[in-house]
Write a structure and sequence with these properties.
Layout: H1 2-34, E1 42-47, E2 50-64, E3 69-71, E4 77-82, E5 89-90, E6 95-99, H2 102-127, H3 129-160, H4 166-224, E7 226-228, E8 233-235, E9 245-246, E10 255-258, E11 263-270, H5 271-283, E12 288-293, E13 303-308, E14 318-325, E15 337-354, E16 359-361, E17 364-370, E18 376-387, E19 390-395, E20 402-406, E21 418-421
Parallel strand pairs: 1-21
Antiparallel strand pairs: 1-20, 2-11, 2-15, 3-10, 4-6, 4-9, 5-8, 6-7, 8-10, 11-14, 12-13, 12-15, 13-14, 15-19, 16-17, 17-18, 17-20, 18-19
Helix pairs in contact: 2-4, 3-4
Amino acid sequence: MIFAATYSRVFTLALIAASLVATGCNAGASVSNAAAPPPVPEVSVTTVHSEDTPIYSDYTAQTFARDMVEVRGRVDGYIEKRLFETGTDVKAGQPLYTLDLRPYEADVQKVRGELSQSEADKEFAANQVGLLQAEADLAQAQANLVKAQQDVARLQPLVKQEAAAQQDLDNALAALQANQASVRAKQASVEQARLSTKAQIETTAAHVESQKASLRSSELNLEYATIRAPISGRIGDSMVQVGGLVTRSSAQPLTTIVPLDVIWVRFKLSENEYFDYERRTKKEQSIPLQLVLADGQPYPHEGRIQNTVNQVDAKTGTIELQATFPNPERIVLPGQFGRVRMRTENRKNAILVPQKAVQEVQGLQSVLTVSADGKVLVRTIVTGERIGERWVVLQGLSAGERVIVEGIQKAMPGSVVTPREE
């Protein structure tokens, strides 16, 4: 019994010892596994280089229509037809409205009749009927005078020879005097007729010219009764509908037309920026502009500055510049906001890093770099302008350094990584 109890106690102790040994082995294995180093993470890096790059500045901009035209009536009348759809593109000279043409057509016919009458009067005056009659009477009087002179010349020697009566000679002399007076009277009549005819011709000619001018005015009014587009562009809504009265003195236009190609853009520079712009324009003929629309997309057509306003805004200390952009698709409309991007300088040996590599915490910007032995280092940087998807680094980086761009979350400062060049 004692042996059995002793055996049982020894067996129990042996089990306990075996259990302790097994536990110790497992603990040793766990300690061994915890001590094994983790694998070195792999990150993507890019080696920064110095390069010459253009620097751009962005300015708030707004589009506007410089040559917008208000369409107005040049004659009075009621609208019979509207010949356009709101928001469509129209061409210069295209009919937009038709007024009631009947009053103007009747006026044209009336003035044409008056012109025909004036032309007939001018033709009659030109024929000089009264002058011709006076000249004929003068010719007859002159012929009678010649006959009277011949009678006197024939009777005078006969009377001296007492071959003819003195009474006959006296009658002949009286007839001669009468014919001389008649000729002088007829000559005066001819001169009077000539002056009268000249005045009549000039008067009727003036009437003809006046009627021609009246006819042209009536024809113009008839033309103006069809209201046409003065310029090409996109037309707005009609302010007067069919049946409405159009007057020349109306303060309200019928509609407006906005030329969209080209589109004008205005933006403002500070005084210092303006002086810098003036210095650059002396070296460059034209500075290209890029327009960034409200959706953030760059406009595909390049613009050019056309002019500046003539004074600085006293409230803001800025000066306005105006530029044009081709707009053949007519997608940009007046009144839209965006940004004008203008090249302000060509910077030499600039350091640029991808935007995704830059981290910002509490206003401080930094990047992670990888040293030659693979150690991750934190570099505090100061950035300047943004060029596409990259930042210009003003301080904190040098050419040839490797900057982490992918795997930043796996790279802890001071740790070792495996860099992979992008």
